[in-house]
Amino acid sequence: MRASGGPSVAEAASLREVFVKxxxxxxxxxxxxxxxxxxxxxxxxxxxxxxxxxAMDIPDRLQAPSWQHWLGTDQFGRDVLSMLMKGTHxxxxxAVVAVGIGMGVGVPLGSLxxxxxxxxxxxxxxxxxxAFAFPFLLSAxxxxxxxxxxxxxxxxxxxxxxxxxxxxxxRGSGMAVWQRDYVMAARAAGKGEARITVEHVLPNIASxxxxxxTIQFALAILGEAALSYLGxxxxxxxxxxxxxxxxxxxxxxxxxxxxxxxxxxxxxxxxGLNLFGDGLxxxxxPRLRRAR
Length: 292
Prior knowledge:
Layout: H1 9-24, H2 26-47, H3 80-116, H4 118-132, H5 136-147, H6 151-178, H7 181-188, H8 193-229, H9 241-248, H10 257-284, H11 286-291
């Protein structure tokens, strides 16, 4: 029985099982820990950074890491740690919104294609093929050429790239579920396609979508860093990992910390998300773990 406002006994048992499997998975634990650290840093950066990430102190420019500035200062005397923290917040924000756009549009399209088949399925798949025909960076350059560089246009470009990805994953997984006996029984009972999709199809492909979201989240962070590196993403005075790398490339020999720390941030967050997604896949679908 379900308590008022709480999960059912079966749901609680399922969550407990997922937690136990996650604790036993090294990839899940390590990836989840790294991801959690970056998310916490992104949240903390909203309210606090050691120094103002826009404050310049020319006499203290290009300082090496010290007790005063843990990760040193850049060519304008700005605190690198504060800029990295704010850059984490900006990267996570762009990735969350962009992946949300991809899921918000792609999942309904894929669900519709799986449920209706026929010309609707063909139309959705041809739209996906058309979207994939344009490389991500080329699409981003086209959008920024029309509307100008900035974080909002980066979100739009990355979000558009994610739509066909989620549409294809939802369609492929959903079509398999539509062949199951319990779905056929639901159709025989008079349930419509929309109700079957919401009550039976989406819950059974949720694990696939969650894992795909972690992968796309990592790609979105890489995409935002690439766009900022090219000057098309987050604009000053807001810091970005990619922008920090672009500004530091001419000073790598005299101030290597300006390249090392933003580069490590990108490497670790992408590694953490990939490990977390891989571990999550094993936890949510034990058949894949046994097949290895």
